[in-house]
Request: fold
Amino acid sequence: MTTAPITIRHLAYSDLPRVIAIERRAFPTPWSLAMFVLELSKPLGVCLVAVEHHRDEARSRLLGYLICSRYDEAWHLMNIAIDPPLRRRGLGTALLREMLERGGPDGPYTLEVRTSNAPAIALYERFGFRPAGTRPRYYRDTGEDAMIMWRTAPAPSRTGAPGQPHSEQ
Ligand SMILES: CC(C)(COP(=O)(O)OP(=O)(O)OC[C@H]1O[C@@H](n2cnc3c(N)ncnc32)[C@H](O)[C@@H]1OP(=O)(O)O)[C@@H](O)C(=O)NCCC(=O)NCCS
Reply:
């Protein structure tokens, strides 16, 4: 990665070709274009991209993305991926931090993740997501179970003082 500035911004329809290219490199069973368009069309949603900027805009690179939808009373993290050569440089963290900024600290937030996906589970746990059951054989391609995770607002302390935001340790 260069020292070019990186920004997190709203995912636009025009980003979708580059998002799908990463999606195909990141997942054995990638989302279709139609699935991304459906998520982007929802009025309540947090859809983000991480972009590396160059003075020559044609050289700007899309590094990763995140899709989070609001259903009923909770935010659902639907998809997150960083281009494989650019992982472990804080980009997933930057996208999740921005999601929490936009969706609000109290959420609540939920997601499903393959039980074998240790990198993603470690990232989610750092943001205060905790396991809350499994969906057996949830992933049709491999028959793998999904771990359900939730991140809920902290309970108010007994002194009545406002609760602290979740730590990102
Ligand atoms: C999961 C994913 C988005 C993480 O993105 P990332 O940019 O690499 O994450 P970060 O660099 O912000 O990592 C933050 C922390 O998460 C944990 N983590 C991330 N990748 C890890 C790995 N391979 N092994 C162990 N812990 C890992 C670490 O605690 C890490 O902090 P550290 O680097 O200081 O140790 C990325 O691995 C990815 O795109 N995976 C493929 C797509 C995917 O599985 N998405 C989730 C679907 S539910």
About this structure: The domain at 6-151 is CATH 3.40.630.30 (Aminopeptidase). Residues 40 and 47 are 7 Å apart (CA to CA).
